[in-house]
Amino acid sequence: MFDYENAAQTELVGRAKHGDAKAFSRLYAQIYKELYRFALYMTKHPQDAEDAVSEAVIAAFENMRTLKKEESFRSWMFTILNNQCKKVMRLGKKEKARLTETSTYEIAAEPDYAQWHDVRRAFDVLDEEERMIVAFSVFGGYKSEEIARLLDRNAATVRSRKSRALEKMRSALN
User: What are the Cα distances from residue 171, in Å, to 13, 16, 116, 156?
Assistant: First the structure.
């Protein structure tokens, strides 16, 4: 049976690779909510998540021609976003350290209503790699084999890390 949805997406990716901004925009519109959720859980701050998604989208658009397989667009986008999240988190740590050293700035904290949710607190007990694995699985919908390729790990390692991470979250929820 012919899969029209995948064929349409493959065509959009092909057009985007040739510089069609509207095609790229349509591709982005299909996954922007998932990208933002992933970034929010990785960075733990709405503004940082927005920055990471924006930077990832710009980088993806500028480098569309480098995408080797049209059917890999989604995982390619999440890989770029994951790298941007790491960059934003590194820069955030440096900025916090700088502000702490000078102590002359008042930091007006933007309220993050998600932090009050139990699941969010449970997610926060995970280390960075565990958060990535759970986020790719839950928000990206990736299978262990796909996550393993994205993180350059063995699929069995990803499954065991995911299992331990989910157990940590369960314990934090109790």
Answer: 42, 45, 17, 23
The C-alpha atoms of residue 28 and residue 21 are separated, in whole angstroms, by 10
Q: Which of 170, 169, 143, 171 is nearest to 158 (CA)?
A: 143
Q: Are the C-beta atoms of residues 12 and 23 closer than 8 Å to each other?
A: yes
Higher pLDDT, 98 or 90: 90
Is the pLDDT confidence value at 56 over 60?
A: yes
CA distance linking residue 4 with residue 45, whole number of Å: 37
pLDDT digits over 7-21, tens only? 788 899 899 999 888
In the chain, where do the E strands start and end?
none
Question: What φ, ψ does residue 4 adopt, rounded to 5°?
Answer: -65, -35
pLDDT digits (tens, 9 = 90+) for 26-37: 999 989 999 998
Question: For 65, left (φ over 0), alpha (ψ -120 to 50), or beta?
Answer: alpha
